[in-house]
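Support request, please re-run this one:
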Amino acid sequence: MKRTLALLLCLALLCACAPTLAEGSERYKAVTARFNGQLEKGAVVNVLENNTAIELGYVQQLIDAFNEAYRDQGVSAQIMDIDQYSDLATDGPYGYGPDVWYQANDILMKYATKKHLLPLPIYSLESRDLIPQNAWDAYRMQMYGEDFYCGVPINVQSGMLFYIESMLPDNWQAEWDLNQNGTPDFFETFTALYALSQDIQQNGGKTEYGYLDDLVDVYFSVGYALTYGAYVFGDGNTNPDDIGLAKGDAAKGLYMLRQWAALMNNTEVLDKTFAAAAYAYLAQGKMLCTITTPDVKQMFIRAMVNTGSWTQEEAEADLKMINVPRLPASADLTSDAWQDTILDMESKTVRTKMMGGVNGYGISAYTECPNASLAFVEFATSYEQVMLRNQVLGITPARSDAAAAIGQTDATVQMIFDNLNEGYIDVMPAINETAQIWTPGESFLIDLCTDAFRLSRGEAELYETIEKIQQGLERMVQQIFDAIHTLA
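Re-run finished. Output below.
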């Protein structure tokens, strides 16, 4: 009875407050006609989920809860045992693909634009008004002059800096907090972090490195170009003929990467497999800090517990996640005294932008149970499930009510929300052509960062100046342009 009354009240509120398109245009209703509210009896919804979420046990909890809730209605769900980067265009038509797929917006939307995902009746969803429009826009697609949405957002992704508080230098409050704000200077500006990292590598410390990271991952590293005025595609990331990755002072951001590669002097930073090793490296003290996304927080915690030096509770308290430090306005990590970037932060530094994404659920156009699939998506994006997903994985929810609740005890959630709203997270373009930036981008970053090792190998440097980096960026952009138009 209580459940029924709550549902009726929710529906009444939605009807009273929903946007004009809650009823939908005739075309909108026609496009989403497969979603008629009639659950397909006996349907088994095949769910393709994130590997980390499966490994840490969250997905099984979600499946079990859904199956219990829908037991009386003859509907169930199961985890698909296939790669999370499945090719829906190949698998779907033959019945091998998922019914429901959890992925980043850029991956889902490249299938949506080819009509492999269904436009969803989002205006009738409970979460419609609880998810910010800029998160919905990551799944927006124009058809027939109207906006349609092919995914339901569940969490916001962006690069964040992770560190273990007990591994901070013992003298940081006396030597590395010039502005006396309680935050270590080396987590406020990259210039200060470079200085600390150099000191640790030369003189030793609690860790072997200060900052250590994979420098060739386009998702994270392109943010430094965005900070200095670059963009991915023109017209709000909708025009693939205008590739802006070499625009503005983009080369400045990548010059900084080359400096890091030289300081780290470690070929591991030239390999994307570094990400898999990062959890143990942080826990074992090989590095003080690294940059990755919020949803892998529990992977760091598990690695800390596995060392035997922390309990689960101690690890959760000791691991910290904060904004990526500000970049030097000059882009040269060695030209400005690190102290100046702290005491004159507004003129000496710029706030860092990061590329980000919105992960969510899409429904396959090849599903035989669209209504059961939508029921699963609604269940998985409910307040209770989003809160549990945060508890197990450390995600930043797209739902404002969940974000507000978590933000009372976890300031990083509000921090990420603010970054998104203030334009310091560039959400990956939701167009098919985005797929063409990754391979040329990674090839260029590997070539750029390898430059730091060329002299020691008796080879000539290729990117020792910002001007040469700019030329390399322009070649990369031409490669992306050619790939897009060859594909077309």
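Residues 466-487 form the longest helix (22 residues). The mean pLDDT is 91.
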